[in-house]
Amino acid sequence: MSTTNGTIVPPAKVDFSSDQEIRWCPGCGDYSILKQVQTLLEQSGKKKEDVVFISGIGCSSRFPYYLDTYGLHGIHGRAPAIVSGLRSVRPELSVWMITGDGDALSIGGNHFIHLLRRNVDVNVLLFNNEIYGLTKGQYSPTSPEGSVTRSTPMGSTDHPFNPLALVKGADGTFIARSMDRDPKHMREVLARADAHRGTSLVEIYQNCNVFNDGAFEVFTEKASKPLHTIFVEHGKPLTFANGTRGIKLNGMTPVIVDTYAGGTSLDDLWIHDERDPYKASILVRLFDDPRLEGAMPRPFGVFYVNDRPTHEAKLTAQVALAKEKKGAGDLDALLKGEHTWTIG
Amino acid sequence: MPTTLKKKPTETRENVVILFAGDSGDGIQLTGSQFTDTNALFGNDVSTFPNFPAEIRAPQGTLAGVSGYQLHFGSVEIFTPGDQADVLVVMNAAALKANLGKLKQGGTIIANTDGFDKKNLRLAGYIDEADPLVDGSLEGFLLHSVDVTKLTRTALEGTTLGMKEKDRCKNMFVLGFINWMYSRENALTEGFLQRKFSKKPEVLDANLKALVAGYNYGETSETFTTRFEVKAAPMPKGTYRSITGNQGTALGLIAGAQKAKLDLFYGSYPITPASDILHELSRHKNFGVVTFQAEDEIAAISSAIGASYGGAIGITASSGPGIALKTEAMGLAFMLEIPLVIVNVQRGGPSTGLPTRTEQADLWQAVHGRNGEAPIPVIAASTPIDCFDMAFEAVQIALEHMTPVILLTDGYIANGSEPWRFPASKDLPEIKPPYIKEPNDDGKFLPYLRDERGVRPWALPGQPGFQHRIGGIEKQDKTGNISYEPLNHEKMVRLRAEKVARIADRYKPIRLDSGPEQGELLILGWGSTYGAIRTAALQLQQEGQSVAHVHIRHMFPFNKGLGPLLKKYKQVLVPEMNSGQLRQMVRAEFLVDAQGLNKIQGMPFTSEEIRAGALNLLKP
Question: B350 preceded by cis ω (within 30°)?
């Protein structure tokens, strides 16, 4: 920053990176996410001072230190609550919340669902690496059942969360999934999330190359990606495997069909409608273990959008209404109360 | 409404303690608070003690379901709700059984005979359903048996209300009668009823009729030959209102926010006995008050931290168990060095403990209860009115010193009320947070560069050029960047502690509440024991004892004058509703041989208990 006689002169090219040394492990998927967020912010035309990053605890939660914006590195699991308070009093800011699978879904699970149901206007980036990284390799609430980790040498006995089904269950108003290895897709999804008013939840598959390397390989590697992923776009049929296969809805049941010569017509496929809450509920349920025979491909993209009013808009409206009805607060009248008596 | 018929003789009393008791559904709290307001409006000094069960509707007629409201009013200064009652009004047998021990020998009992049928006697645990109203066991008291239920029903004959609704007017009959007995008008309650039932004319009519019938019963009944009068107290001139401690806290918080020209964010999770602060604040949104009923205690404080980070004054309140949950977040606020107010309306502990009873057992929790070295200033209110002053000061310290502040009140003063000669807003000081306007380090901004008081500057999101990152990880001196450097950590621990210690620089010099500047015994009190200690100390001084009373509000850091003061007396007595928490703190800090007077019954001290404790130390 520079000042000339008190006038702030913005730098010629806005650079959102801070002067702090980045301390993630070399090769961590977090670098890719940081890069895309920086790029998006630089292209968005936002002023640095109007952007706030709030995080909890975990590898991902160091994120705010690496951006030249306002930032608060909170305590484990509580970022949604901190965000809720901040947005209640500063609805004009651009607020981003950085969290991980342990932070959001385990220790902060309660705050996470309440943030969603209230629809606080914040872009939530949920870095899912299906492992506890910062505590060095215990299973997380998204680790598949049977995961062998440092705390589960005989395999995890816990059934994992399906994060986006949980988000849908909590009436989230923007539900999306992307991955660290597909920067272009991530940038597009992040831009959509940023444009949405309300809690924009983006689950990002992020590789922890130290404790859980290759957890999402089947979705990210060139060879297996076409068969195991499906990228949804609003108004377009659900196809994958380079357009040779598609998903059709038999009533409420999705089924995989062939779409090439002699196969099902594209018009008969499931057409993605991101405003349809029922289809979104089915879409988030496409969560098969990719190792199983006949597994459904894992969907990526924006699954669901709903324009329900934000929590802070309703709070602010109440304060405005109270001021309109009663007039701005008169402290003397408040101290006096409704009934007084005089002595002397 | 005309309420007088013929005159009966009137006797004057200096002060009266009256205890209303009945089932928790009998409207006892309303009866008590209406009679309180009537007396306060008349010009008496008053002090009250509502005492109700934890269960909302405990089984009718049982001891567990008894709700009580004790009122002390007088033509003299009143400091406590009274040690023992002069008059006990009971709506049923359980209410008598639960409260007879609080009645003076020779005191008056007014009993609703309908509440003493066989079922009620059995539920109250009277052996063989023996009726105390007729078996002579109440001989030492002045007993008036009145069939309130029947008289109320008779008064309401001809109204369209059902029997159940008619019976719900019983408390107004009782109130009308008590108004007569103490030469008070029904007018205030009539006005209250008219507002409350403006949309239910039949209910309004019935309640007004019951109120008048009760008053007239006093005039006409031959049992009651005398009425009493308590003249107005010589209160300082001015305009008064009635206020409870929780209201006082809420208003103090709003006043603080207004004087700092800030919005107020209140994050809270409902809990007894703190919820009334949330209820009160939620009514004042036009003061820029945002109330947020969070999903849990942790979210309540964390959201308040978020709001403070955004530039409002963030506030949260709870009681012991909820405060325990907030502990980690308090550490964060301390580490961030942002303003925050945490109110603990203490109740009986540990764990769920005694939710509707009072205690002072969270002092150590407030002063010590965090991981790492995280000293947070702790202040305590001593009366309902003092809740206002202390809440204001909590906001002031939080904002001017960039720190979380803990305010301790308790269930006793939170629900109790007294007349308040409220201040004018212009007499309250302006609050000035250390906002930063210009870069503080050669064109750059250092978020943890401290001023001469050790306080860091406050830059708010949206302020161009002051972008910075803060967090709970140890930070480098001045820059606030993450640092694990050993010497830096030690330095930061010391700097943060020093900043909090320097808050004592702003306190006014310590002042005795009463008694000689030096002598035999100093009674050191804190919090809601104020009234009982003051009453006892004044009495002991009248009796010629060399006893002084000091009541401290700053629990951490202590007033610098406290240590020297303690040394001016041969003995120090610390009465507390805990096992001796302040006592241990002053022993550790000042090496004085302070003695404890400790009551851990969920009930406040009586002044007689304090007096006896002091006399015990003064024995030759």
Answer: yes
